[in-house]
Amino acid sequence: MSNDIPDMRASHEDRDHVVEVLRVAAGDGRLDAEELDARLESALSARTLGELAGLTADLPIPPSLVKGEDVLVVEQHGGKYVREGRWTVPARIALRTQLCRVTFDFTHAAITSDVLRIEADMTHGKLIFAGARDLVIDTGGLGLTYSKIKLRSRNSTADPRLRIELVGTLVHAKVVERRS
What we know:
Elements: H1 12-27, H2 33-45, H3 49-56, E1 71-77, E2 80-83, E3 88-89, E4 92-98, E5 101-105, E6 110-111, E7 115-131, E8 135-145, E9 148-150, E10 162-179
Parallel strand pairs: 1-4, 2-5, 3-6, 4-7, 5-7, 7-10, 8-10, 9-10
């Protein structure tokens, strides 16, 4: 995780968001009443974003509850799209590209969630993941048509800093991983 984001003070809005995620998870049967009560109590007394993130790390975030700033939408036809340096990794990325080379470099990124879900709709392109060794990239949710996946180490990190879930479709595209 980033050096500064997990220690950042949580707002009332941050706590309310986590409480709603917990309630939806309980309604879906993911949490029993006792676990829900314990997590709600922890959420309401949490002081930092890191404490809040730990309460929902094992739960999916319902699309209806994903905040606008927690989604990065990349829609591009042709050229390059690069996210590198100091950037905040959202909970979700919607990737809709054609004839485009997309690079996500996590080396100096501020990671605020344990899981990043990338919903890909990529045609004639290349998706490059660069960064630290403690990333796990799960491509099980991808539909491939004349496409390639070239990852150095699928799920080899025991305690990853970030788990990337790639879902969607790739047509004449390639996914590549570059470790630092």
